[in-house]
Amino acid sequence: MKKKRKNEPFLIRDCSLAAVAVGVQAQSLRELRDKIATIHPGSIYHHFWGGRLRPQFEHPEYHNDFAAWAHHALHDNVLAERLGVIDPTDFKELEDLRQELVDVIEERLDEQDWLAWARREDQFHFIRSQIVVFSTPLRFESPADMPDVISAMSASSIFYHFIDARRRTPEFLDDFCTWLNGFDGEYDDLVQEIAQIDPYFLSLVDLKQRLSQTVSDYLMGVGHVRKHFERTHGRAGTGEGAKQ
Amino acid sequence: MNVTLDAYEPIVGRDVIDQLFQIAAPLKGMKIVHVNSTRVGGGVAEILNKMIPLMNALGLKAQWEIITGTSEFYQCTKNFHNALQGNHVVIPETQLREYEEVNARCAEELRGTLEGADIVIIHDPQPAALIKHFTNRKGKWIWRCHIDASKPYRPVWKYLRNNVEDYDASVFSLAAFAQPLPHPTYLIPPSIDPLTEKNIDLEPEEIATVYDEFGIDPARPMILQVSRYDRFKDPLGVIEAYRLAKKFTPTLQLVLAGGGASDDPEGAVVLEEVKLAGRDDPDIKVLDLPPDAHRTINALQRASDIVLQKSIKEGFGLTVTEALWKSKPVIGGNTGGIKLQVINHHTGFLVNTPEGAAHRIRYLLHNPDEMKEMGKKGKEFVRENFLLTRHLREYLTLMLILWFGNGDRIELDRLDWRTNERS
Hints:
- The complex is a heterodimer.
- Chain A is an alpha+beta fold.
- Chain A is 48% helix and 14% strand.
- Chain A has two domains: 10-14 and 139-233; 17-128, no CATH class.
- Chain A contains eleven helices and two strands.
- Chain B has two domains: 3-191 and 387-404, Rossmann fold; 204-385, Glycogen Phosphorylase B (Rossmann fold, 3-Layer(aba) Sandwich), CATH 3.40.50.2000.
- Chain B is globular, with a radius of gyration of 23 Å.
- The mean pLDDT of chain B is 92.
- At the A-B interface, strand 1 and strand 2 of A face helix 3, strand 6, helix 16, helix 17 and strand 13 of B.
- Strand 2 (124-140) of chain A pairs parallel with strand 13 of chain B, so a sheet runs across the interface.
């Protein structure tokens, strides 16, 4: 007899992003600071994470748009490095992230005797995103399904469940860990392993592979695949699963 | 399963096709009308020719209408185009009146179609004034501006803005190209279609035909720039860069391939200047190709070692996209949409001067493995970001947002456009 499942199936959703020009630009470092201080929080989010879903090269030198602009337009590599190292996953709230940006820029303004300007063509254009979320036919019934299903997910679906989830869930967790926590502690080790994957420095395609591999290695390592097989199909030679 | 979308599956993957069906599902049966001013020639017609069948394949009821005008109307809209790009153009009052009259006449001709549409997408300034004649419209109207309007000639923009501010949304290719408007401004970069003659895979034998046809030696390195003969594309700067690089690689050949000079007086002047600059060197080929020479351009791009797009000013730069799709490293001018596509040491190099271009030509010719690696990266970059399927997805996303709400997040589960109350 099958053991009762401890958790609801995980239904895979996907998303598509629309980029909106907010009509705000900065041409100097001081302008950038002033605009960051007041811009819609969705714009802060977009310039850290939105690049994952909009046309952009997968392995940029800097991992947020502010750092890239400091390098390419202001030619201030000191500032670019300081902005580039800001990891948005360190901040629970976008307002805290905004304050960190302002602090770093103000520190740089204090250090400089002159104000850094960009060419008109290289102005920083603030953008925000709107996200459309929709269902897909993919689902996990149990953690053993995860490696194959994750491999079939689109890049934007990985974004939705692994990155975007941290903004919309009360515990700031990705959806996979939230779901695994519903198994009464059985997968705590796996949750910890997934939590160690840093989404900030991986492309969505690399992130998908890393996630799938992490879950697969874990399941193989602790014998969960076999346990799951036995649970759902019976012991080899004796249970329902052995009948062909 | 649909034949037209299935043709893209080997290129983009099944997950991309499935995603399009999932996004389009709530829009099934919706009537979409695109309006522009020509069915042939130009990038807009090229995109619509493919976009309309794909939208229909996804279950939407998409159609394409055109407006036609007089020569005075087209003179006026050509002036609009130049003025949006920053040229100081004074448009005579008679031309503006003709523009308004043609739009008024076309509005009556298209009234039934446009009043019955759920979404109307008006491309560029030519039909932009149609909206003034649909005060009781029920659908959402979008103005799609394909032109770089970053520094428009203000008096003309003021006139055009009066015609476009009533739209529900506008779309520009890049944030830098947009102007502030009283409605949301969306950003959708253009795309290339991998299945058109300009981009489809060619057999080696067909690629080899351009060697004989244009006197190119296949055993020697060849660099190429494809663009119309326009000073902003800096063809003379390309010749200068070639000359500087040839000192170090004497076997180097340069092909400049363009067209459109026959019906553009300024283009003809530039073409003559370019021919003059290259006449003493048999390794410089200056080609004036007809507008339908897509397969020839395709073969030339595939036959080249490096593609240049050394523009001083550029829109999005789809010739760069085309070259990257053919696995070629690109040396591009540090301007416009080229900056989005050419990533130093990854897909090519951005340059500001002929000297910079020459330096990068030498560098690449001495690093063939790096050229190969860049070519691979460039192709994947285009596959992920600049193919027609991504463009289609973004149009569908925009339609969903306009129809179902304007918040930061729209959850589509169980929504149907027929029953959902519009925002």
